[in-house]
């Protein structure tokens, strides 16, 4: 195997070792940030684009995300816990069990009358969207189990110094999904929802297969996952106390999206705001990629000598870099060109986009900061504090949104990104407070 140089070893930790562990993960997040825009571009050029875009973006992908939410944090859990063969195998059983249970839930939702009760009844989706969305959700059935397994395996790869394999897996995923999207675009054999569902499901399956093949040599190695170190794996209540708060973190975070949409639709210029919101969010997410990649690097490296000092400096460097890049886009014609020229928004919508993007200025930098503190808390197995911080984020954002709706004088994009920025500030502050005792212990 072509191994990178990040496996824990007696050699002291350096900036170079941190960077070599971080950059493949950052590239992986960056590549993933382009997947959904690519789907939208293709679906918009196929038959009945409005209906299929609404089915995919309004029903299928959000529901798939909610179903898979409890296993999103398998990456952090595996990075922290996959220390030897016994721990790896115990965690693998959990990953497969969780994947199977969540897939069963997906099947119940996609293939039974529960779908109509939710989509027609509770969500009140327009009738022309209901059946295309049902088909798309059926095609996405393998998604959750594949996500659970590949994130579990990727955590072990990061733990033992193979973070490049995660980036390669993401590239393979995008190559697979991109090929299906391209074929669907060129030959137009299927509706957009079919092309989207097949592309995303096939891409994740390909990534999971690649991760499986890359981890097999580690299991056979007497120096890596193939060895039992005599430590009992985390099981039972101890594991539940560690993982349950982690699993709830993305679930709570996902609640911010429908709350934000509901609030925006009740403020001035609702249609304009809802049209601009995903475009601004997409650009902000791209800038968050480097910060998101820090979490697993911190978890994997924090136990090494001098790790606290170096990882703190590296995290602040990433945060500062993202803040500078974001600020440069706001102060130069970059943001205006992105919204007005690249996305072809009219001058009014482009101006709303630039204003929202400016208010989102703290978010990418704060994502790097929260990844640092979250890594410290996962390393210390104090995962409850992470869920507390996300709940605080949701509370602060919701209060600002409620105030915005009550005032009724400012558009939803402005209020929405102000709410999310303040929410991220509150989340970072809470994680800092909860991580301080663990950081002192590392000094």
Molecular structure report:
The radius of gyration is 22 Å and the shape is globular. With 443 residues, the chain is mainly α. About 1% of the residues have low confidence. Helix 8 runs parallel beside helix 10 and helix 13 runs parallel beside helix 17. The protein folds into two domains: 201 residues, no CATH class; 207 residues, no CATH class.
Class inferred from helices and paired strands: mainly alpha
β-sheet strand percentage:
under 5%
- Our count of domains comes out at 2
Q: What's the N-to-C terminus distance? A: 35 Å
Spell out the helices and strands N to C: HHHHHHHHHHHHHHHHHHH
Topology overview:
Blueprint: H1 15-33, H2 35-43, H3 49-68, H4 74-81, H5 85-111, H6 114-122, H7 127-139, H8 143-159, H9 163-187, H10 192-220, H11 236-264, H12 270-292, H13 294-301, H14 307-331, H15 334-342, H16 347-359, H17 362-379, H18 384-407, H19 412-442
Q: What would a concise description of this structure say?
A:
The protein is mainly alpha-helical. The protein has helices at residues 15-33, 35-43, 49-68, 74-81, 85-111, 114-122, 127-139, 143-159, 163-187, 192-220, 236-264, 270-292, 294-301, 307-331, 334-342, 347-359, 362-379, 384-407, 412-442.
Question: What are the main properties of this structure?
Answer:
443 residues; mainly alpha; globular
